[in-house]
Amino acid sequence: MTMAKLFDKVIGIMGFADDDYEDDYFEEEEEKEEVREETRGTGNRKGAQVVSIHTQKQIKVVVMEPQAFEDSQSIADQLRNRRPVIVNLENAERNLAKRIVDFVSGATYALGGNMQKVGNGIFLFVPNNVDISGEMKDDFKEKGFFWSLTK
Asked: How many domains is the chain partitioned into structurally?
């Protein structure tokens, strides 16, 4: 130990030491620690925006019961607007129902969508942003596509 350090230690024990140097040192360290804590908390993200990752849009299903062939265009418009459509043709005459299904299925194909028969005279037409799971293709093979449209 050098003579200067020994002298400073003795003076410190007696209470005559210069505490200003130590106080300044500890104050600087405390300020540095506060700055570190502040930057850790914010992560240096000034101007950052929080964006929700829940982007799933609620899809509405349109149910239509066309009375005339002209109604088939409004069904196609719904598909073009990316809305699934359930078409109820139970009360339509056979020729009209066949024409509507032909027109809407063509529009569905042109838009990249799909169709599914879900019941007697009831069809589901969906745009390309909707998938249909579960199929009833066995009924189509056995009874034909329009077997339930007879009156």
From this structure: 2
Retrieve residue 110's tokens.
């042109």
* Tokens (6 digits) for 40: 């850790």
Distance CA 85, CA 116 (A): 11
Residue 136: give the domain boundaries: 62-143
C-alpha 66/C-alpha 35 separation (Å) is: 70
Name the packing angle between helices 71-80 and 94-110 (round to 10°): 20
Tell whether 55 is covered by a domain.
no
pLDDT at position 88? 94
Q: Record the pTM.
A: 0.55
Residue the block writes with tokens 């066949």? 98
Structure tokens at 113: 């969508």
